[in-house]
Every structure is written in structure tokens, then in C-alpha cells.
Write a structure and sequence with these properties.
Layout (H helix, E strand, L loop, with lengths): L5 E4 L6 H16 L6 E5 L4 E4 L15 E3 L6 E4 L3 E7 L2 H4 L3 H17 L6 E3 L2 E7 L13 E12 L2 E9 L19 E2 L11 H15 L5
Parallel strand pairs: 1-2, 3-4, 9-11
Antiparallel strand pairs: 2-6, 3-5, 6-10, 7-8, 8-9, 9-10
């Protein structure tokens, strides 16, 4: 039987530096066997983060503080109305396969979104979860418009994961205008509320908890 995973839901807005310090300490404790795995749900004040693949040209306008971070990926936005899910799991137990782990994170988001009638999809070369937008004009080449609803960026230390993913519930989508989100042009970003769904943060948290048990119930 898999060990229990701890869950913490933080109220209010958590500063980014505070979050990173907490994760660093927790990952060290997991590595030394003095703490268990953890899923930590937070909201941040408006800010941008830059991953290890971030390109200078993708920061269009520093509307908010920019935090350099060692997670994978490029630039993304965090802010109120977005659920940030920090994932501290032991891949020594769950399989030392980064690609498979990211795939499980994507599957987790897709399964949670399905509970609200949202069909999340993955695309080759575009990490994260996307939804098609038939209600919007197609792209110039005639292909359907797709908007990103969830971003993923992880870091490993001693095969313990941290950082994680973010899902848009009802953030101010115009705040993405200061960056090229995840370095991808031609597509937009969306949220559950932007899709016309009356979903609150607590609703998403419950869906994530249920879906986690489905996707991560047993080690890979």
C-alpha cells in the first residue's frame, strides 16, 4: 500500500520566496526520511516566474515582480484566482522517469477538469494542458484555436520533486500580457470561469484530491 501523502491548503496569498524556502526544507526532510510526501495548494500575489528555458525576449513587460527559479519551462504568470499546486513526491518510490512523471501530472489535471465537463488535452512539444476553443476564430492556417488552462514546471533533487503546476480558476487573464506564456505564441490562455463555468477554488481543490487518488494511487 502506498504511503499517505500530506495535503496543505494555504489561505490568503503566499509569497513566492516563502514558498520556495518551504519547499526546499520539505524536500530535504523527505530525502532524509523525516517528513512525508506533500501536495501544497497556494495562491500567489501577481508575479512572473522564469524557468530554466526562459528566453529574455519572452519577457515583454515586467508588469509584476519576476522570480528566477530552477524549475523546468519558460515564463509563466501566477496570481490570485489561480491554483498553484506544489508537488513534493518521492520518485525513488514512484519510478525514476521524469517524462512519465510529467505525464502523470498532465493526466491528473485532465482527470480533475473532466469533472467539470472540460476536455483537457496535451499537445506534442507543448507541456501543459490545453482546451480547444471552437467559439473563437481559427488560427491563420485554419487550425482550431487552443488556450492553455494549466501550466507544468518541475524540479528534482535527489529524485524528490518540487514546484509543480498551476490551474486557472479565475485569474485576471490580461496579466499574462507581459510575457509570452511558456514561450508559445499564437495560442492564448483561459480559465474555468472564462469557459463559462461557475467553479470556485474549493471545487477545484476537491476535484484535485479525488483525481490524485486515481492517478497516483500506486507507485509507477
Amino acid at each position: 500500500m502506498a504511503a499517505m501523502v500530506d495535503w496543505i491548503i494555504s489561505d490568503g496569498l503566499t509569497g513566492h520566496d516563502e514558498a520556495v524556502a518551504f519547499m526546499e526544507a520539505r524536500v530535504a526532510a523527505i530525502r532524509h526520511g523525516t517528513a512525508g510526501e506533500l501536495i501544497w495548494l497556494v495562491e500567489h500575489p501577481p508575479l512572473y516566474t522564469a524557468g530554466t528555458s526562459a528566453k529574455d525576449g519572452d519577457l515583454l513587460r515586467a508588469r509584476f515582480p519576476v522570480h528566477m527559479t530552477g524549475r523546468g519551462g519558460q515564463y509563466t504568470y501566477h496570481g490570485p484566482g489561480q491554483r498553484v499546486v506544489y508537488v513534493m513526491l518521492d520518485l525513488n518510490r514512484r519510478g525514476r522517469d521524469v517524462r512519465a512523471f510529467v505525464g502523470r501530472l498532465e493526466a491528473w489535471v485532465i482527470d480533475a477538469l473532466a469533472g467539470f465537463g472540460v476536455t483537457g488535452q496535451i499537445r506534442p512539444g507543448r507541456v501543459g494542458v490545453w482546451v480547444t476553443r471552437p467559439d473563437k476564430p481559427p488560427l491563420p492556417d485554419g487550425s482550431p484555436r487552443e488556450d492553455k488552462i494549466a501550466a507544468i514546471g518541475v524540479k528534482l533533487r535527489g529524485w524528490i520533486s518540487f514546484h509543480g503546476l498551476s490551474i486557472n480558476v479565475e485569474p485576471e487573464l490580461s496579466h499574462y500580457d507581459g510575457i509570452v506564456p511558456c514561450g508559445i505564441s499564437g495560442h492564448g490562455v483561459t480559465s474555468l470561469v472564462d469557459l463559462g463555468l461557475p467553479v470556485g477554488m474549493a471545487d477545484l481543490d476537491l476535484a484535485l484530491r479525488d483525481s490524485f487518488e486515481t492517478v497516483f494511487a500506486s507507485p509507477a
